[in-house]
Amino acid sequence: MDLLHWKLFPLLALLASFLFFFYIQDSSKSSQSGCSLFPHSHYWIASKRIVTPQGIISGAVEIKGGSIVSIVKNKDWSGKFKQVVDYGNAVVMPGLIDVHAHLDDPGRAEWEGFPSGTKAAAAGGITTLIDMPLNNFPSTVSTETLKLKIEAAEKSIYVDVGFWGGLVPENAFNATALEALLDAGVHGLKSFMCPSGINDFPMTDARHIKAGLSVLAKYKRPLLVHSEIQSLVESHLETKDGGGDPRSYSTYLKTRPPSWEEAAVRELLTVTKDTRSGGPAEGAHLHVVHLSDASSSLDLIKEAKRRGDSITVETCPHYLAFSAEEIPDGDTRFKCAPPIRDAANKEKLWNALMEGDIDMLSSDHSPTVPELKLLNDGNFLKAWGGISSIQFVLPVTWSYGQKYGITLEQLVSWWSERPAKLAGQHSKGAIAIGNHADVVVWEPEVEFDLNEDHPMFVKNPSISAYIGKRLSGKVLATFVRGNLVYKEGNHAFAACGFTILAT
Ligand SMILES: *[C@@H]1O[C@H](CO)[C@@H](O)[C@H](O)[C@H]1NC(C)=O
Ligand SMILES: [Zn+2]
């Protein structure tokens, strides 16, 4: 460096610090250090279609300090307020709450991670997700492993994230261990009645589940159960030469018949009777995840509801969008458990959802790396089972639901209100005064092709069964606690989602 530069340097440094000072001034006044793409903390979101618990209104939602502080139903709001984002005819509704997502972080972040998974969630209009206790490593089954989850999530999530803990044989009969996990903030527990596919997450039986429910009762938190019981008679089909061409979807479908789901639900109902009012586990709740069998299994759940058991059930968009008949041989992107069944079953699932017998929807976003999907081999029996979907669930539900005449209010019920209730999120799930300003703005009528040109944020988009589909329903903007975290292909600079812990 020569002398001239040495003299200029302090001057430049001074100039730089001035610029920095004004930048800080400006950004502190507006967004908090890059958390939002919109530079105000007090503003109004206006639209002709705002979905509220009192119906769809034309008006504006006032947001201040991350919460909804007023809702004005007024055609003549313009000019009155200072900071208005007018979305015209686009739909403004509560952000989606996905109670069933596997973000695999820490330990298998190459499958999906907190940054990628929550960016994809935000791009799809999801403002809160509850992360499953498995597919990450180690599985979230203790206070120590929950701590690892929370540490991995902090400062790397674009939406709010809560956690389910695992109910496994190791902790099921240890009330001290379960209470510690619940005290540490998991929103409830999750268990499997069949092998989970993950070695450090072993399956549970009705005895474990009964013990788990009795602890959960005190906390009034739910147990989520993967409800399939392997029957020995049929499981030989999963061996390599037992049941025909492993590239054929029907071979895989036969390895996991509806009777597996039915057997599991039947067994569950022997313990859910404890959750009835006056029962030994009153206060606990059982939630059947990703129901695929819309026949006997669903009938049993309906019966249990009628007799007063505290039980709910979800299904997932892939069971509502696809049917076994249309899954090409070798296309393992469609492999999940329980499997996608035939078209008649799909029809029954839709009817059950419309009737209210299925309570809510979740993504069961369960991706992996492309190599484990065995896309080249196309071996359904060996490929990883799990559908990658978190970014697409809103347009998928909407698009495939058109045929059944679904409404915006139903979408909100299935994707926001009821999931909020299940996860104990009383300040979320509705456009209502006092709630978090968790909002999705989208255009139901706008169609798009899910191809390479579409901005995708999931880590391995090539394994998603939805790629190549034409969908209806474009997400324009996603707000989480008042921060505009996603807008037309772009995310906020900083990841400012909260880890939400049960108290
Ligand atoms: C129960 O869990 C606690 C906390 O993890 C542990 O210290 C204790 O050893 C466990 N008890 C049994 C009998 O395994
Ligand atoms: Zn799952």
From TrEMBL:
GO terms for molecular function: allantoinase activity; cobalt ion binding; zinc ion binding. Residues 1-30 form the signal peptide. It holds the Pfam family Amidohydro_1. Residues 91-485 form the Amidohydrolase-related domain. One of its GO terms (biological process) is allantoin catabolic process. It comes from the Eukaryota. Belongs to the metallo-dependent hydrolases superfamily. Allantoinase family. Homotetramer. Catalyzes the conversion of allantoin (5-ureidohydantoin) to allantoate by hydrolytic cleavage of the five-member hydantoin ring. Catalyzes the first step of the ureide allantoin degradation followed by the sequential activity of AAH, UGLYAH and UAH which allows a complete purine breakdown without the intermediate generation of urea. This is allantoinase. It comes from Gossypium hirsutum.
